[in-house]
Design goal:
single chain, alpha+beta, Alpha-Beta Plaits, 2 helices
């Protein structure tokens, strides 16, 4: 699994976060997506890497700007992983 952090300019409120989450869900096969207007980022957990060129175009299409992105392997933490 892959964790991708998208830095996005233009999100101002919870409705902006909702629009961004919907856009990501509609264009990519994801396990989880969450956005934060305060942090200016969207975090996506997916099986495969995202098509960033397509996402940048779609994000621009709804009035936001993709500033940067960072992908890293994601390992799900289990219930008893807190002591490791």
């Amino acid at each position: 699994m892959v964790k991708t952090v998208l830095k996005i300019d233009g999100m101002m409120c919870s409705m902006c976060e909702s629009h961004m989450n919907d856009l990501i869900r509609n264009h990519c096969k994801v396990k989880k997506v969450s956005s934060s207007a305060g942090k200016g980022e969207t975090v996506v957990i997916s099986e495969n890497e995202l098509d960033l060129a397509m996402l940048e175009k779609e994000i621009e299409g709804i009035g936001y700007h993709l500033l940067s992105s960072h992908a890293e392997p994601y390992v799900k933490k289990g219930l008893f992983s807190f002591g490791k």
